[in-house]
Design a protein that fits this description.
heterodimer; A: 114 residues; mainly beta; 4-stranded antiparallel sheet; B: 111 residues; 5-stranded antiparallel sheet; 0% helix
């Protein structure tokens, strides 16, 4: 069964901490994405990557950075966590041509910054 | 930028009844995805539509993309408690950039 795995389901961090959210996919997908989901705002794209070591800003990149050193792993980094980054974070991957199943999502990480 | 509007925002339906959720785009749709999300969990892929007039079905769920490719509908026949959750439509742009999503439709099935 193909998978996108996010390392944590729930995280609680303190303001100012550096936070790493990890995502691993086993489908050999070229494209990987990080979204955040907030009530009333829906899903918003933070960053995406279409190849190893490549990254592109999405709609709301401020306060975040990403790392993609290996094809299967895409990390989201909060350099200095703030309370307004409390949210549900969803990772997704897709093949280059987005065919077939299209985008596959992980189970999400619910991050609370206190 | 593309925007997707879903209607209704929430829906309460008696078990066994049929229902329809709509997704309207501000621009032509080149690929329309339907996902289901159980509360607090990730998104589960349901269907992808690409061609105007295309219709796909999976079990009791049917999705259509209209001829002009600016609206899609998701229809559930004889709803069951397992259908409860949030339904999201997502649209693909060009290139590798991610999907733009609607805000979702919350579906509650009453026994």
């Amino acid at each position: 069964d193909v998978k996108v795995t996010q390392s944590s389901r729930y995280l609680v961090k303190r303001t100012g901490e550096k936070v790493f959210l990890e995502c691993v996919q086993d489908m050999d997908h070229e494209n990987m994405f990080w979204y955040r989901q907030d009530p009333g705002l829906g899903l918003r794209l933070i960053y995406f990557s279409y190849d190893v070591k490549m990254k592109e800003k999405g709609d709301i990149p401020e306060g975040y950075s990403v790392s993609r050193e290996k094809k299967e792993r895409f990390s989201l980094i909060l350099e200095s966590a703030s309370t307004n980054q409390t949210s549900m974070y969803l990772c997704a991957s897709s093949p280059r041509d987005r065919g077939g199943l299209g985008y596959t999502f992980g189970s999400g990480t619910r991050l609370t910054v206190v | 930028s593309q925007e997707l509007e879903q209607s209704p925002q929430s829906l309460i339906v008696q078990e066994g009844k049929n229902l329809t959720i709509n997704c309207t785009s501000s621009k032509t749709l080149y690929g329309l995805y339907w996902y289901k999300q159980k509360y607090g969990e990730g998104l589960i892929f349901l269907m992808m539509l690409q061609k105007g007039g295309e219709e796909k079905s999976h079990e009791k769920i049917t999705a259509k993309l209209d001829e002009k490719k600016q609206q899609s509908s998701l229809h559930i026949t004889a709803s069951q408690p397992s259908h409860a959750g949030i339904y999201l439509c997502g649209a693909a742009g060009g290139g590798a950039d991610g999907l733009t999503f609607g805000k979702g439709t919350h579906l509650i099935i009453q026994p």
